[in-house]
Amino acid sequence: MRKYLLVAKNTWDEYMQYRLNFVMWRVRNVLRLIIVYFLWYAIFNQRGELFGYNESQILTYILLSSIVASIVFSTKTQDIGEEINSGNLSNLLIKPISVFKYWMARDLGDKLLNIAFSIVEVFVLIIFFKPPLFFQTNPIFIFLFILGIGFSLAIYFLISILIGFFGFWTPDVWGPRFLFYIFLEFFAGSLFPLDILPKPVFSTLQLLPFNYLLYFPVKIYLGQLSILSIFEGFFVGLVWIIVLYLFTNKVWFKGLKSYGAYGR
Fold it and tell me: What is the pLDDT of residues 113-124, one digit of tens each?
């Protein structure tokens, strides 16, 4: 366990060496949040309720989804493809550590740093703009919300690793990841609640893993899902975790057979 904690700490040290990159990443997130916030603020300025949401609920959704996104989408698994292409993966394979646990530890360090900054950023925006927000006081929903984030972390970690494994077969790993992230922001509910979409589209999205990344846990926090719906969502999410885990392992072992460490 200690060696993986050191891996997480080393991830922090990497960010301190490339401070400008990290600062620009945070600036991008803040600007994006402000744009989406004011878009929905303008929409609700002349309306009391829209799409089944009042102003406090939709603004809470936007701000909270930003915090959840900083927890879920911050990852170091985006470097896996490059590690494969450069041959640096060999350094991990010869060490007495689990490659998957190594990347989980790196993710942990990355997420903790991004969580801290995201909470501060949202807190400053709340003080500055003073938006009407909804605060959940039911401890059951708060617990289920935290549990939902745990499901989100597992699903995104496995999906992100799968995309990184493209590096076993192609040197172009950033293109597919970039396109996937654009796709993900829409279908995870980062820009708006998914249930404002037409019902057939929303019903289809409920069967996919993406809505469990942001939309599902935030809806739990807002108290807009019944206990039965929540546990149905957990069941579907668990099925996706198992499927993704099995598929990830299969792709990993298949990729190792074609890995040649050409960069070395």
Answer: 777 777 887 788
Q: Where are the beta strands (DSSP E) in 30-180?
A: 49-50, 53-54
CA proximity to 131, closest of 190, 60, 54, 69: 60
Closest CA to 60 of 180, 224, 240: 224
Residues β-bridged to residue 49: 54
* Alpha carbon of residue 64 to chain centroid: 13
Helix (H, G, I), strand (E, B) or coil at 1: coil
The letter for the amino acid at 162 is L
Contacts of 62 (CB under 8 A, 6+ apart): 33, 36, 37, 40
Cα–Cα distance for residue pair 5/195, rounded to 1 Å: 39
Cβ atoms of 214 and 152 closer than 8 Å: yes
Q: Token digits for 204?
A: 């289809």
Cα three-residue angle 98-102-108, rounded to 5 degrees: 140
pLDDT in tens, 143-156: 999 999 999 999 99
CA 262 to chain CA centroid, nearest Å: 32
Two tokens, residue 126? 């709340």
Domain ranges of the chain: 2-258
